[in-house]
Structures are given as structure tokens and as C-alpha cells.
Amino acid sequence: MKGEIIIGNNKYLIDFSKGKDISIPLIFNGEQPNSYGVDRATSKPYTDGQFIGDTRLGGPCNFEIYNFIPHCNGTHTECIGHITKERIDILSSLKDLMIPSHLISIDPVSTAENYKPELNKEDLLITKEKLVEKLKDVPKEFLEGLIIRTLPNDQSKKSQDYIQIKPPFFSIDAMEYIKDLGVKHLLVDIPSVDRLFDDGVLSAHNVFWDTIDKEYNPKTKHKTITEMIFVDEIISDGNYLLTIQIPAFVSDAAPSRPIIFEINEQ
Predict the structure, then answer these.
(1) H or E element: which one contains 4?
(2) Which domains does the chain have, with CATH numbers?
């Protein structure tokens, strides 16, 4: 199925049958990414002593219990309710169905840019300097969504145990720049936009949602962050149309399936 859309002042042709999935499939009981060393995502047949929900064990159908933590077990999209006292949910926050977006690839680096708490010597960050270099010529209409692929980029991201390594994160300067650009939907292939162990400060999250002391800011309710995506090497940097699929969870985050579509200017 093909469609013609208007973004800004230009018309584009999109083939909706050729979307590229940039989520990591969640394999229950199998290989999967993990952050903070939490329990792995698991599934098991429901049983009540008489009924068993597994056809391999003689049950009439497969009927399973799933246990997972969206923030830690794979690709997920979160809303402002992730960091506020007020319980805001992703279902009412994610309202944009089709999002003009730009994909960039970035090398995280050591930096003197700002971060709170204080940086460690071994920290690698996504910096404002790198973002400016990559985004300075991108039309504003394609910065409603920003997709960031960190380098090096390999298949290990699909099963990485992030407690074993120190993943990169965003400097405050970088996140301020992203906010100033007007980005509403930020997608990254790291487990958090902040350092995993940051004394609970969540500096970059708070900058993105413009929050102070865990207080809800209604002006940023419809902004989202999607973490632990995977953008295959065959996908080129550039402009795309993005849709973020989530289940109808009334929760601050939900597992998600972002899909991007190539656009062709007419």
C-alpha cells in the first residue's frame, strides 16, 4: 500500500508495505537485553491443578503467564510518568500516529560537557557537539522524532547485559539541545538516556520533560522516550516517517515496536 503525504511544504510518496522494524523482539526465556540486573523476561504455562496451558503437555491450548519489566527487558517507550509523582500513563501520552523523524549515527565520546552527578573518567556520552554536527542541516519538520544509533553498532545489542558494561548516555548540553530543537519523540539504542547508576538524579530525563523535583509538567505530557531499539546497519541515516506501536497499557511505559518508512520526495 502506497500513500502520498505532505510534510512542511513538500509532498512525499511512502510505501507502507516496506516498513523497517527497529525494535528488539522480546524472546521470553531466551536471549534478550537486560539492564540493572533485574529478572529476565519469562513465560510459563498457566496451571490450576486440572487445566494446563501447554499443548505439548497435553493441554487443550497454549495459555501462558508472562513476567517482564518493560523498562529493563527490551525495547520500550516511556512517558513523563516515568519520573513524576503523578501517575501519567503512556497510553494517554503517545498521541502521534505518524511522526516525521530523522535517523543519525553517533560515536559516544569522553567530554567536558555538563552532567549531573559528576562524570567518571570512563564515561562515554552523546554530546551536543556531535548532535550539532549531525543535525545542523536537517529541516525542522523532520525533527519531531529523533532516532539515534550509537557506534559501534552490532548484533550484541539484542542480548546485551548492561550490568556488565558501562553504556553511553546523554550530556545535559546534548539533551538541552534536543529539547530546544523541539523533538517530541526521542529513540535510542541504549538502556537509558541517563547513566545507569546516577544516584537517582535522572538529569537527562528531567531536561527532556522539563520537570523539577518529580513534579508533573502538563506541557510535555505528549513527549516520549523509546529506549533499547536496534537499527540495523543496512538502514541509512536520513529522514523517515515513524510510527510507534504499543499495547494499550495504562502504565508509565510499555513494550513497543517502532517502525520507520522511507520517504521519497515527489
Answers:
(1) strand 2-7
(2) 2-25+74-265 (3.50.30.50)
